[in-house]
Structures are given as structure tokens and as C-alpha cells.
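REQUEST FORM: STRUCTURE PREDICTION
Request ID: SP-0412
Submitted by: Lab K.M.
Chain count: 1
Length (residues): 108
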Amino acid sequence: MSAFDPQAALDILLAEYGARASAIRQDLARSHSPDFAEQALQRQNDEVLEALLAEAEKGLRQAGMAKLRLAEGTYGDCLRCGTAINLARLQVLPATEYCLACADHATG
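STATUS: Completed
RESULT:
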């Protein structure tokens, strides 16, 4: 098993979220059918795409902020309590901002 490279992991994450956001924007830019019933369905699909785009843009922001923390030397420190985030958690969620205890506290 190779050592965890946060820079590479975040670069991959940024590329994936960027590609996803670009594809969704392209889908949203397409023209709609002249048929009213078909337009209604397409508008519903657009709402789903807009939610997916918001999620991809959130991922881009989180990965970008994680890269800033990496450059500042604070990457891997919990933003809430300041303790080190477990390496296994960072490997799975490279842009995570919180240790497991603080993440559980925020969602619980």
C-alpha cells in the first residue's frame, strides 16, 4: 500500500467534481421539447440536475478549501476541535473538515 498523498487525492477530487459540474451544466443548457407534456418532465429533470450541480459545486468548494488548508499546513486538523483527523478518514474523505467525533456531533 502506498503512502497517502493528500495533494494528489484532492487534485483527483477537484477533477471529478469539475467534470461532473461541467457535464451537468451542459445538460441544463440543452433546449427543451416543444411538446408541453415532455417539457414538464424535462423541467422536473432539470430540478434534479440543479440539485446535483449544487452538490458538485459544494464538493468543489470543500476540496478547494482542503487544498488551502494543505498549503497553510493545517490540513488534517479538525476545524471544530483542532485534533488530528484519523488518516483512514482522510483517505476516504480527503476534503473532510472534521474528525469523526465532531462530524457525528454536527449531524446528531
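NOTES: The domain at 6-107 is CATH 1.20.120.910 (Four Helix Bundle (Hemerythrin (Met), subunit A)).
Reviewed by: T.R.
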